[in-house]
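Ticket #4471: structure export looks truncated?
Reporter: QA, pipeline team
Priority: medium

Steps to reproduce: submit the single chain below to the structure queue and open the exported record.
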Amino acid sequence: MNCLIFPITKTALKKANCSNKMERLQKIIAKAGITSRRKAEDLIKAGKIQVDGQTITEMGFIVKKGSEVTYEGKKLAGENKVYFLINKPKKVLSSVTDDRGRTTVIDLIESTERIFPVGRLDYDTTGALILTNDGTFSNELTHPRYHLKKLYEVKINGILTLTHIKALEQGIDLDGVMTLPTKVVITHKDLSKQETDFTITLFEGKNRQIKRMVESFGLTVLRLHRARFGFIEVKDLHVGEYRTLKPYEVKQLRMLANEGKSE
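Actual output as written to the record:
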């Protein structure tokens, strides 16, 4: 039976009985370690991916086994999967490159593989950030349907009241969308300086989420540090230091994400 090489539905693919010979283009890009599977769609839409010399821009394109897939003129090949944990410093971007020449987390890690950050931390936020070349792993840890918990240490310029805490824990409306419930623990209050230190546990990762939640009370975040990602902590890493994740840590993170558990 001849296998089709054009976009087809999963049902049609199964009927053709050739799934073992074909693979979606997004998955191939992710496997090559260029980016996550979701972001691979942006590369396809931008016309940056070629299959056997033909530029592909349609989503769901199925690649026949043996076809040559190229990106920026270079053939994609499977890479050794690597996983790093860094205690991200302030004034470092959670991106692969920067057109303004600013330092990125990639600049801080020595790796022969083309790694990228799993999710992101703001420019002035420190703490736990994972980098990898495994697009599937990245998607599992960042996709909205997975609720892997993240613990942040926060300092704000005001006194967090019980009303504030209740609102944070129940969820806050950000641009018409309610945040998921959180857990807040006050660690220190300085009445003379009018500052509060607390920890907050999130089960999602909206853009600038903690800062926006605090700003909804008319307060401002002074310091933000992600102390834990799932069960992975950075307390043994100085700011700017990194280490390789252990195989059991990668396996456990995958399991927690896919099961929707916090720990």
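Status: closed, not a bug. The export was complete when the record was re-opened. Leaving a note from the reviewer for reference: Residues 247-259 form the longest helix (13 residues).
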